[in-house]
Structure formats: C-alpha cells, structure tokens
Amino acid sequence: MADSAGIQQGSPAIGAAGSVPAAPGAAGTEGSGAAGGSARIAVKKAQLRSSPRPKKLEKLGVYSSCKAEGACKCNGWKSQNPPPTPPRTDQQSNTVNLQEPCRSCSHTLGDHVTHLENVSEEEMNRLLGIVLDVEYLYTCVHKEEDADTKQVYFSLFKLLRKSILQMGKPMLEAQESPPFEKPSIEQGVNNFVQYKFSHLPSKERQTIVELAKMFLNQINYWQLETPSQRRLRVPNDDLAGYKANYTRWLCYCNVPQFCDSLPRYETTQIFGRTLLRSVFTVMRKQLLEQARQEKDKLPPEKRTLILTHFPKFLSMLEEEVYSHSSPIWSQDFLAGASGGQIPIHTVISAPPVARPLYYSTSPVSVDPSTCGSVSPARKTASVLESNPVGEKRKPSEPLPHEETKRPRVVGDIPMDLINEVMATITDPAAIPETNLLSAHSARDEAARLEERRGVIEFHVIGNSLNQKPNKRILMWLVGLQNVFSHQLPRMPKEYITRLVFDPKHKTLSLIKDGRVIGGICFRMFPSQGFTEIVFCAVTSNEQVKGYGTHLMNHLKEYHIKHEILNFLTYADEYAIGYFKKQGFSKDIKVPKAKYVGYIKDYEGATLMGCELNPSIPYTEFSVIIKKQKEIIKKLIERKQTQIRKVYPGLSCFKEGVRQIPIECIPGIRETGWKPVGKGKELKDPDQLYNTLKTILQHVKSHQNAWPFMEPVKKTEAPGYYQVIRFPMDLKTMSERLKSRYYTTRKLFMADMQRIFTNCREYNPPESEYYKCANLLEKFFYTKIKEAGLIEK
C-alpha cells in the first residue's frame, strides 16, 4: 500500500485530476470551497424543483414579464413584502397568493405567469434551473473584481435572463462555435505520443500514456489567469487573442461547471495549440516545482515516474508545442502515422470519482513511504497520485458513470423521488448528529471521526529480508509484538515474535500519537483465494472505542483491492463474539481442500470464516446505512404530509364486532396499502414441500427455462453482477427447496419472480432471454394457480 501524500492541491494553478475547478467569482482558487459551492447549487435546484407548483410559479414570476392587458412594460413580478436578505428558509411561507399585486406595476402575480399555466412539470423544472443559475451569476457579477471576467458574467446573466423570458434554451451567440481550433489539445497530445513513442515496447509506451493522461487532466481543470494578470506578466503577448480564448473558456468550460443550464465542453477538446502555448510554460514550472517540494512524500514507485519521466515528457512536449514545423499539429498527421491512435480521450471525458480509500497493489515493504497509509488524513489525491501505471480497474470497482446508468430494480422507489429526498439531506448540517455514546451510533463512528481528524492512522507493514531495515517500521513491529503478547497471554511470546517478523506475514497496524495501539497480523494465500488472520488485538486502555471494528473494515477493503475475498481464522472463546460482529461465522465458504495444510491449527479454538462483498465500501458502510435511514425517514415524513386527513377511531368493536377486513379501515388505502392477492397457505410443511417441488420440476422442464437453469457466469455476461444486485436461478431454488428454506409460498414465489425481473432488467426487450422470461413467467403462474396457491 502506498501513501496518498503527493502533489498537494490548493495552488490557484494546480488543478489535479478529479478536483473541482474554481467557481466563478472565486478569484481562481479551487478545492473544497469550490466543490461546496457547486454542491450547494445542486442542492438548491433539487429543493426548488421539489416545491409545490404555486411556489415554482412565484419563483418564475419574478423573471416573467407582465401579460396583463394594456401593454404593461413590467419585466418581472416584485413582491409587496420582499423576503429578508439572505432569505430564511425556516420563515418562508408555503402559501402563495396568485392575486398578490406586483410592487412595480400593481398587476397580480397571476398576470405574470399566465403563459406557464399549461407548461409541463419537466419544462418548469428546466426554467427553475436557469433561474438559480441567473441568481448565482448575479452574485458573481457583484463579487468579481476583474473587469473582463465581470463583463462575461454579466453577458451570461443577460443571456439566461432572456432565456427565461422567452422560455427558450440558452444559446451562446458567437462568431465561432466549438471547437475553436483543430487539431485540439487532446488530439495534439495523442499525436505527440504516437509520433515520439510508438516504437517503444508496450509497457514503456503505457508509462507515456499515463503521463499524457496526467497532463491532459491538468489542463481540463486549470484556472486560466485573467487578461489583466497576463498583461502584467507578458506585456508583449497577443493580448487580444488571449482575451478571446479566455472569454470562450469562461463561457464554454468554466461557468458551465456550476451553471449546468449552459452547454459544457472540455478545455482539451475545443481548444488547440494557441491556448496551450499561453499556459504551458507557467503550468510546467509550477507542476515541477511542487513535485520537487513534495518528493519525500511520494512513494518510490511513483517518485521515478513523477520526478524523472514527467519532466522529460514535458520538455519533449514543449519542443513540439512551440515548434513551427512540428507535425503533431497537422490535421493530416494520423493519415501518415503507423498504428492506431492511443485512446487518451477515453480517460478525460469525465473527471474521475475517487472511492473513499485507495490501496496500492504494490507489495508491502519496510520503507516508510510504502508502508501503506490507509488513512493519510483523507487528503485528496492529485493527478500525480492517480492509479499506478498500467493498472486496470478491478471488476469490483464500477466506473463512476456506471452507477447513473444502472437500471432500476422493479419495486424500488423512483429515482426522481430519491434524488429529491437526497437533496434535503445532502447538507451535513441537515443530518442530525449522533451522540457517540448513543445506542444508535455505529461501533466504528468514533474511530472514523478520529481518523478524519488525523488522530489515528492505519498502515500495512511487514518485515523484509531484501531491503535495508527501516527504524520506524522496526519500532512499529516491536510495538505490535508487545501489544499481541500483552493482550494474548496464552500465546507464547516467541511464537508471536516469529510470526510478526516473518516476511510472509503482514500486519495492519493502528497508530496513535506515533505509537502502536493495535493491529491485525495476517498471511495472504492468493493462489488459494483466502487470507489467514493470525492475531488481532487492541491495547486494553484503548478498547471500546470502535478501533477493532474500524481495523477489520480497513483490512477488508485492503483485501478487496487485492482480489482476495475470504478470511479464515481460529478464534478462542473470548474472540468469537468479536468476529461474529465483524461478519464471521462457523459456516466456512472456502472448500476444505483449499486451506487444509496451509493455515495453522490451534487446539480449543473455533475455525471461523468471512466472505467479503467487493461492492461494499466497508469503512464507510455505517455512514451509508445512516444516510439510508435518513432517506427512509424523510420518505415517511413526505408520505405523512400528503395524508392530512384525520379519521375518527373505529367504534365497531364496542358494538361487539370481533374483527373487520383491513381494507375497511378508513384511510388505509390512502397510505399506499394494497390488498395482497389471496391464496391458500399450506400449513403442513411436507405438503408445501411436495407442492413446490412439483411446480419447480414443471418449470425446469419447460422449453423456455434453459437460460435460468444455473447462475449467470461472469464470463458470459460482463458486468452482470454490477447491474443485478440479487441474482437468482433455478439451481439455487432447487438447493433452497431441498434445505427446506421455503417455509411459505411467498418466499418461493418471490425467488421465482426475481429470476424473471432480473432477466428483464439486464436484457433488452427484443432479446431471446427477455422473451423466455415472459413465457416462463406466464407458465409459472398457471401452475401456481392450478395448485391453488393463488386465486385463479
């Protein structure tokens, strides 16, 4: 595992891969402030779009010209009682009076919004998005000090204002439209890699491709200096040309990051060598300067890449950028080039989204820079800290945009509703804080907070016979030996020492105030597909703080990164409870032949195993569950607000009635309750088993059952298990039936229905699989009805 410390962000010019560009009006700075600004705009839009229609009309009325008779010239309704500035959300009234007169023209609000009466909800939400962009740009105009930038903001403000009045889509009026120069920067860099490095072996060429990706991402998130700043720095430059490109960059690349009603483009795709020349020298100087300042924090495997290869790459590229005869800027370059184009553009089409934690796939060594900080104070990784050269994304790590494309499982809550609710809880201030001593707080919550504050750190370390001993690592290993010896008195100290210092074993160490307070010693068996946990302990005076749970969660994520998804351990009577809480059980999923002869056997101990789910971010799992609870709570609250009518209590029971049908309860249907299809529930287990067995045999014998006989293989359906969260097949149902899992008809029917639902979710309607699912489903329900399990 490698330290995430690298080129730090924060410099106005450094725009690392995955970072958020500066918001308009932010004077070129970037980082958390800009990201927060963008997030706040998104939250406001979601909240406004979820408002009642009258509230939306009031908002749009402010930007709508008066439609009253007499050719009124009022260009926007103004309230008689304007809200305070800034408006207080807790004091805003939910009632909107369309008859309220305008402070300017005295005509009513209704006169300003008559053109919106028949407008669809989708169109109204689009206009509301433009409204918030207008308000944001208005703020930028007043805050911006640079005259050129202010002028662009004001022009965009007027454009969006006009779009609301005319109910049209914002179209930038310019003499030229993107792209502004060909070939683009992206194409030029592609050509450069092909021109200079196509003769290299595959591995070395891949290194160059990674460097090119770094460079292109830097440009996409680079904050251009204003024309006035450039005038002071380079007085003899073509300022008119730079100002034109700066204006285009603001309109097409920078502002649309925050005002999404405007079309957005990547800088490297619409600009060419002219813009690159204007920023290259400054960018190169600042990048290399910062790399040298942070060189001691870089992992060894990246130190060579960044400090040696990257400067050479930039120097060679600089020659081609400023050369008048370089062939890479010719539009006919690829026609005469051998080989295919290197698809760098596939990487920069969207900013990469970081997972909560990144682990290096490089082996653990004793060097402090490779000891593997799992918790580098939650620093944001820069472009020079991206994935190792040549490393492919693991199947367990879905691409950032895959989540948005994932089909919705039938029965889920609509995503539009989820997004509306999410918008109300995105702001951390809106989520109620959990008392760390509360029964409702997660076990690892205190530890996770300490990690974020930098109080504790996690490092995977190990001894090495091949490298020079490192004093800090050796001190930590001695500290681990002392913790294990003290907390595990039954274990011989010599045995603990031998395993902790054995090069084949590694230890995830928990460091607090520079000293070891706990750890998990383990040995990985990649060829067998499991890891043996040997020792696990936290020093006694640091227990009951969630460290043990957080340690195990980090260990799980480390192994998911290394594609080992099974833990085995022998737990004594005192440790069984802990391991059960961490997801271990006595039901071992690893075949016995895989681990017999590999792991150490202990008398009086219980063998326990844990199977990891690569889709779960374990260190953030309790946070996700907490947010899910908040979503459910908000959904319930929304449902309750929709059901305002209060019904009197039932008086029939006083009159001697013993029971009534559920559907007779006043208001029950309004809550969303629906009567369940009636059917005969077989109470005799053997009778139920035989009936279900007969039905399952009929289904398996059907001519359209062939696609569903066995679990879907990953090789036959790539990405299937990223789309289908709850797979099911007829073989699994047969095993469940044999083990008497189906204690009710509903369980059996639910699994069968899941087969058909999954098939239709993954496959297109015109596919053979989709048609088989429909036909088999129809046959299944015919058999269910014949058996009397549901009404005909």
Automatic annotation (TrEMBL):
* First-listed, main subcellular location of the protein, grouped into a coarse class: cytoplasm
Tell me which InterPro entries the record gives. Bromodomain, Bromodomain_CS, GCN5, GCN5/PCAF, GNAT_dom, PCAF_N
Q: Where is the composition biased (Basic and acidic residues)?
A: 390-405
Intracellular or extracellular location(s): Cytoplasm, Cytoskeleton, Microtubule organizing center, Centrosome; Nucleus
Q: State where composition is biased (Low complexity).
A: 10-27
Q: Which GO cellular component terms are attached?
A: ATAC complex; centrosome; nucleus
Q: What class of enzyme is it?
A: transferase
What Gene Ontology molecular-function terms does this entry list? histone H3K9 acetyltransferase activity
Catalytic activity field = L-lysyl-[protein] + acetyl-CoA = N(6)-acetyl-L-lysyl-[protein] + CoA + H(+); L-lysyl-[histone] + acetyl-CoA = N(6)-acetyl-L-lysyl-[histone] + CoA + H(+)
- Bromo domain: residues covered: 700-770
Is Nucleus given among the entry's keywords?
yes
| Transferase as UniProt keyword | yes
Q: What is its EC number?
A: 2.3.1.48
| Domain N-acetyltransferase intervals | 465-613
The UniProt entry's GO biological process terms, in alphabetical order, are: bone morphogenesis; epigenetic regulation of gene expression; limb development; positive regulation of transcription by RNA polymerase II; regulation of bone development; regulation of cartilage development
Keywords, comma-separated and alphabetical:
Acyltransferase, Bromodomain, Cytoplasm, Cytoskeleton, Nucleus, Transcription, Transcription regulation, Transferase
Sequence segments annotated as region (Disordered): 1-39, 369-405
By sequence similarity, the record places it as follows: Belongs to the acetyltransferase family. GCN5 subfamily.
Q: In its UniProt entry, what is this protein called?
A: Histone acetyltransferase
